[in-house]
Amino acid sequence: MSRDELFVRIRRDSWHEGLSVRALARKYRVHRRLVREALASPVPRPRKTPVRSSPRLEPFKKTIDEWLQDDLQAPPKQRHTVKRILTRLRQECGADLAYTTVWDYVSRRRREITQATGAEPAAGFVIRHNRPGMDAEVDFGEAWVDLAGERTKCYVFAFRLAYSGKAVHRITTSCGQEAFLDGHVHAFNVLGGIPGGQIRYDNLSPAVSRVIHKSRLREEHPRWADFRRHYGFTPFYCEPGLRGAHEKGGVEGQVGYFRRNYLTPVPRVDSLDELNAAFAEFERAEEDRRIGMRIRTIGQDFASEAPLLLPLPDDSFETGIAFTPRVDRYGMIAVRVCRYSVPARFIGRTVRVVLRSSDLVVFHGRTEIARHPRLTTKGAERVVLDHFLEVLLAKPGAMAGSEALDQARREGTFTTAHEAFWAAAKTAAGDTDGTKQLVHVLLLHRHLEHRDVVAGIRAALAVGAHTADVVALEARKAAQADGRSPTVTATGPALELPEPQPSDVVSLNAHRTVRLPTDHRPLPALDRWDQLLNRSRKDAP
To answer: Are 291 and 300 in contact (CB under 8 A)?
Structure first.
């Protein structure tokens, strides 16, 4: 007899037969408290759920609560899952807990902290048969990165082979067409071939200009059409909206899986090149993983799929977008609401710019004149000090307060050695001439390696010299002592070099005290050459 039925019978006997509480308790063999409860309410009180203690989880509850609190400020797609929390507890705290123990606590605490609701269940899906080397899926996903100390919204390009599940990723600050094409080229090169069947896409604006209503037909972007014809693959465009996402569910889940497992917590890097290099390590680690209940790993399935991919074309495809801006009087060009510097000699001219997903290249004719990393912030500027050295020779007073000098200091190309040389040169020759000597030293970076010039500066300062000629001489000597050519052009961050010893540097002051022998040769006679200056045109034969 259920508890509800028992309550009904007790209330009926009490009403019809007029039995007392004691008689009802004796008849149904229950306690008098239960009889009184049944007479008070027809609905039994729910059983109390016992509060079970978890002594092994107790020391880590505060840590889990802090992570769940931090998730409220994190991007929605980069919040902790139960699996990620369990992994961090094992790695960072040395915890030995069961998955169900953590799941029970997190599922309850997450509701209490965020009061979030679950998603509605899907209606149902049909499993697709994938042939090796034939089909693939592509998608973009958002991710936040602490880039050079600033939280930046980035985009993860994911290319996933449908058969093996082998995925290639690339993160950029843009999801424009140049990043879309560059991601394909990177994926094809990593995989070593091109799928021979269909590659499934959303209706992304870099590929699709217009969706034909109620059909699978699409009006493609001309540049995208040229790209796919160059590589010889067939695109398949999914339906718009949520239904279309289910047609390429593999890559939809891949983006989320990669973000949760390798981009949580939010990564902190100095550049996206550093993060893309880490992606290659993540992808190699993924080859040992089994998807679902598959017998073979991703790497084993890809090993059998790779030979079936189509070969890559011999010539490359330029993925960048071309612009033709005009250089303003400040030596700057504007591209996509950002400004970049070019050499000052091109002021007033029209140049050609190729904007790629990670960098920007400036050409004058067929000659490359500047290269910059792509800027991400609206209104940002990148000014290179080397582009304005000729102007600073004519206007040395503008050097100290220039934006180019400030950016060079922050990037590390203008080192403490340059600062010391500048200060010594101004002390010896005055502010104007001392700054000009510094500019001449900076011009040496165009044909000498950065570390050689820095070594030359330190050597010149060690002997009390403050001229660019001495720096050039010592820089070439430093390169030759290292067994390298002294005229190799290279740029890069400053290297920490050991301070030169005075005994290793030839003192120029000692050479000045040595008198050269007297030259007793007669001066050349120039009388006959002077006759040519006085000769008239009519005297010519």
So the answer is: no
- pLDDT tens digits for 162-183? 999 999 999 998 888 999 999 9
pLDDT tens for 468-482 read: 999 999 999 988 888
Q: Are strands 321-323 and 352-355 parallel, antiparallel or unpaired?
A: antiparallel
Instruction: Say if CB 326 and CB 362 are below 8 A apart.
Output: no
373 pairs with which residues across the strands?
359
Quick one: which of 47, 58, 43, 55 has its CA closest to 7? 43
User: How far, in whole angstroms, is CA 210 from its chain's centroid?
Assistant: 30
Collapsing DSSP to helix, strand or coil, 123 comes out as coil
Residue 181 near residue 227 (C-beta atoms within 8 A): yes
Q: Compute the distance between CA of residue 328 and CA of residue 346 in angstroms, rounded to an integer.
A: 9
Cα(41)–Cα(478) distance, integer angstroms? 98
- 276-282: long-range contacts, CB 8 A cutoff, minimum separation 24: 276/170, 276/171, 279/169, 279/170, 279/171, 282/169, 282/258
pLDDT at 537: 60
Instruction: State how far the alpha carbon of 452 is from the alpha carbons of 415, 474, 493, in Å.
Output: 13, 8, 12
Rounded CA-CA distance 231/253 in Å is 26
Distance CA 511, CA 491 (A): 33
- Quick: pLDDT tens for 265-301: 999 998 899 999 999 999 999 999 999 889 999 999 9
Q: How far apart (Å, rounded) are the C-alpha atoms in residues 228 and 514?
A: 74
Taking only the tens place, the pLDDT of each residue in 222-232 is: 999 999 999 99
Torsion angle of the four alpha carbons 462, 463, 469, 473, in this order, in degrees rounded to the nearest 10: -70
Phi, psi of 235 (to 5 degrees): -85, 150
Q: How many other C-beta atoms can be found within 10 angstroms of the C-beta atom of residue 258?
A: 21
Q: Are 84 and 131 a contacting pair, CB within 8 Å?
A: no
Q: What is the DSSP letter of 156?
A: E
* Residue found by looking up tokens 């993983």 in the block: 289
Q: Which residue do the tokens 């239960």 mark? A: 34
